[in-house]
Write a structure and sequence with these properties.
The protein is α/β, with parallel strands linked by helices. It has helices at residues 14-25, 47-63, 73-76, 93-103, 128-134, 141-146, 154-161, 184-190, and strands at residues 2-6, 31-34, 67-69, 113-116, 119-122, 196-199, 208-211, 217-220, 230-233. A five-stranded mixed sheet has the order 4-5-6-8-7, with no helix packed on it. A four-stranded mixed sheet has the order 3-2-1-9, with helices on one face. Helix 2 links the parallel strand 2 and strand 3 (67-69). The longest helix is centred in the N-terminal third of the chain and has 17 residues, at 47-63. The radius of gyration is 16 Å and the shape is globular.
Length: 235
């Protein structure tokens, strides 16, 4: 299976440029996986432009069943669970509501994790410590993550992606951080066994592959909103 993976968008034209290039150069891909963070730009982009670009993605998403959309921390925090303390962001009144109104209708077909063969895709990475933390009595959150549940509710996202006092980290630097917040340095020693992981979230100069402590590969694809994408050929 040929898979294209696109990292953080942050209000830019990255997805649109990558999708155009995929159509022209890699039209035989079987899946196009977008790793989230649609909003909160690192450069000045107005809200209406961000929303317009996101809505253009949604139209393409609805027409191309190869596309898999994964939620990032900048999609969830402040817009879905509306917790301003969870990460740096730009959120103001009516503009925040506009983004919320754009994202929420698409939760039913959005993922936190997605897997193909022995490759696990998420915004930031899946830690075994975090899976242990979220396996509460009467919930199946860990199983849902490993089974790549689609259609998370706002309450569920609040349960498993919000920081708790005992594991809070402003930078995601401990093994208890969620699949939308953990950093590669923390993921290195606590990544789930048996899977190569493909993540965005942490900016790198270019798409990079490193080896995890468990011997599997970790791909980092957030190359600072450049119009690049990763191609994987997965058995």
């Amino acid at each position: 299976m040929k898979v294209a993976v696109i990292g953080d968008i942050h209000g830019t034209t990255k997805f649109l440029e990558c999708y155009k290039n995929i159509q022209e150069t890699d039209s035989d891909v079987d899946k196009i996986i977008v790793l989230g963070d649609w909003f909160d730009p690192y450069i000045r982009i107005d809200f209406d432009t961000m929303i317009s670009r996101y809505n253009e993605f949604v139209k393409i998403w609805k027409s191309d069943d190869r596309i898999v959309s994964i939620l990032g921390n900048h999609d969830i925090a402040g817009y879905i669970i509306q917790n301003d303390s969870t990460n740096r962001t730009i959120r103001f009144g009516e503009d925040r509501k506009k983004i919320t109104e754009s994202i929420k209708p698409n939760l039913s077909k959005s993922y936190l994790t997605y897997k193909i063969g022995d490759y696990m895709f998420s915004h930031a990475g899946v830690s075994q410590e975090w899976l242990n933390d979220i396996q509460y009595p009467y919930h199946n959150y860990a199983e849902d993550i490993m089974n790549c549940k689609k259609g998370w509710t706002a309450d569920e996202l609040s349960d498993i992606c919000t920081f708790y006092p005992y594991d809070w980290s402003s930078c995601g630097e401990n093994p208890h951080q969620s699949c939308v917040w953990i950093r590669p340095q923390s993921l290195y020693s606590c990544a789930i066994d048996g899977y190569n992981q493909v993540v965005a979230h942490t900016r790198v100069n270019e798409i990079t592959k490193v080896e995890l402590k468990n011997g599997k590969d970790l791909w980092l694809v957030d190359d600072d909103q450049k119009p690049n994408y990763l191609i994987l050929n997965i058995d």
